[in-house]
């Protein structure tokens, strides 16, 4: 493993790299596939709401809790212990795949747990990687995870395997992630124990804590730019998902072509991590947005869904970008608020797509597909014109907002 990592110029303990792969198999191989693909049969697709709505609500406060309750990067992995109950609930879901009421209840709890585990996974990646190697590590880890996502997407859409078997596989991966979290939590070594100043609130009540926690984020103009750009990207994806490839091909065919797109994106990420570190993140974001814009041509030509590779490239790159711009004690809040707005955009877009397509997986009009292209193209322009990133750690802002203390230097403490 060490020789394998050295070929990518990555200096990282092989166990930590393996743990990251497991965690991202949960995030990209399970959570994102579940959301993006809508694995529920059309008559009861509304069960997706029972997962997305609790997930969105949980993300509102998950980042605050994660940042407030940790004092080291290793302890941040403690929230990944929630993968254990999440895995068991997924296992139960597999045994009740035909019961709509039970499914709805289970998805609610899974959505709540996922809100914490997704944010913890992303924060753990940034905690355990140096900034100058972050692109390479993220490219390699997420490339492997996106490849698994492509396999799962093709597998589920093939109708060869029953959905309950899929849930059993999902449960096994989540439980494996939970076991890794147990190991990380009780490690006695100091390798992953980077000190993090705990967030201290001066407000009273939980509402005051939320307000104070997120107030400073909106003053970060880079963050706002990416929130707006990706809101548009996810909005367009949500609009297009209900009509998918029904312009000229069965929806199932669209899913299978999309799996090829994810696989293509994975291959790109496996070899492009060096570009992220050497030539900057903005360039890769622009390429990803361009490919995502072209992907809507799948309404006219099913092969166009291959360009969904841009979506996997975008999501991976923005994970790195947010990790670069977020203060060490605010990573959870940056990721949670960013994902919350992304999922809200997807949810709104999905409802719009249902209305414009006159039903689930029925098909819209060429104008709907063209509108999705335009919406995503706007995000491309925003990133291209306004997107900027520091190239070295010294370029990053070190200003910490009021209410979040900084670590005192030795000269200040004496």
Write a structural description.
By secondary structure, the protein is mainly α. It has a single domain (14-187, 217-389), classed as MFS general substrate transporter like domains (Growth Hormone, Chain: A, Up-down Bundle). Helices cover 69% and strands 0% of the residues. Helix 5 (83-95) runs antiparallel to helix 8 (163-185), helix 7 runs antiparallel to helix 11 and helix 10 runs parallel beside helix 14. It starts with a helix and ends with a helix.
Q: What's the layout of helices and strands?
A:
Blueprint: H1 2-7, H2 14-37, H3 47-68, H4 73-76, H5 83-95, H6 100-127, H7 134-157, H8 163-185, H9 205-215, H10 221-240, H11 251-278, H12 281-294, H13 309-325, H14 331-356, H15 366-386, H16 410-413
Helix pairs in contact: 2-6, 2-7, 2-8, 3-6, 3-14, 5-6, 5-8, 6-14, 7-11, 7-13, 10-14, 10-15, 11-13, 12-13, 12-15
Overall geometry comes to globular
Assigned CATH architecture? Up-down Bundle
Largest sheet: none
**CATH class descriptor:** Mainly Alpha
User: In CATH, what is the homologous superfamily?
Assistant: MFS general substrate transporter like domains
* Chain-averaged pLDDT: 75
What's the number of helices? 16
Q: Low-confidence segments, ≥5 residues, pLDDT <50?
A: 38-42, 188-202, 391-414
Kindly identify the CATH topology: Growth Hormone, Chain: A
Question: How much of the sequence is in beta strands?
Answer: under 5%
Relative helix content: 55-70%
What is the alpha-carbon Rg in Å? 21 Å
Order of helices and strands: HHHHHHHHHHHHHHHH
Query: How many β strands by DSSP?
Result: 0
Query: Any idea how many domains?
Result: 1
> Between the first and last Cα atoms, what is the distance in angstroms?
45 Å
Global structural class: mainly alpha
């Amino acid at each position: 493993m060490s020789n394998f990592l050295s070929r990518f110029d990555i200096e990282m303990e092989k166990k930590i790299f393996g743990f990251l792969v497991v965690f991202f198999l949960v995030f990209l191989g399970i959570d994102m596939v579940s959301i993006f693909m809508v694995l529920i049969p059309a008559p009861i697709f509304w069960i997706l709401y029972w997962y997305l709505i609790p997930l969105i609500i949980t993300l509102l406060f998950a980042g605050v809790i994660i940042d407030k309750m940790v004092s080291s990067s290793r302890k941040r992995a403690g929230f990944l212990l929630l993968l254990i109950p999440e895995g068991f609930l997924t296992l139960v879901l597999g045994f009740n795949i035909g019961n709509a009421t039970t499914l709805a209840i289970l998805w609610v709890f899974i959505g709540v747990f996922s809100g914490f585990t997704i944010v913890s996974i992303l924060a753990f990646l940034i905690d355990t990687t140096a900034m100058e190697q972050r692109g390479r590590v993220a490219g390699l880890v997420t490339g492997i995870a996106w490849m698994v996502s492509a396999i799962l997407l093709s597998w589920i859409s093939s109708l060869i395997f029953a959905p309950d078997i899929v849930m059993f596989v999902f449960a096994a991966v989540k439980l494996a992630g939970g076991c890794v979290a147990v190991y990380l939590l009780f490690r006695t070594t100091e390798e992953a124990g980077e000190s993090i100043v705990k967030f201290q609130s001066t407000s009273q009540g939980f509402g005051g804590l939320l307000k104070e926690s997120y107030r400073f984020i909106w003053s970060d103009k880079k963050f706002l730019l990416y929130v707006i750009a990706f809101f548009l990207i996810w909005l367009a994806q949500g609009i297009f998902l209900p009509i998918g490839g029904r312009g000229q091909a069965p929806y199932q065919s669209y899913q299978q072509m999309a799996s090829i797109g994810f696989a293509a994106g994975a291959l790109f990420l496996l070899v492009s991590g060096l570009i992220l570190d050497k030539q900057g993140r903005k360039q890769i974001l622009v390429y990803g947005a361009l490919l995502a814009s072209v992907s809507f041509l799948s309404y006219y030509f099913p092969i166009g869904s291959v360009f969904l590779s841009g979506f996997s490239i975008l999501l991976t790159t923005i994970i790195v970008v947010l990790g670069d711009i977020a203060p060490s004690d605010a990573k959870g809040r940056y990721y949670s608020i960013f994902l919350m707005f992304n999922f809200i955009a997807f949810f709104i877009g999905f409802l719009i797509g249902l209305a414009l397509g006159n039903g689930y997986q029925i098909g819209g009009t060429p104008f709907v597909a063209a509108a999705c292209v335009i919406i995503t193209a706007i995000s491309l322009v925003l990133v291209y014109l306004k997107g900027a990133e520091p190239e070295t750690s010294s370029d990053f802002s070190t200003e910490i907002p009021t209410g979040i203390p900084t670590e005192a230097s030795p000269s200040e403490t004496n």
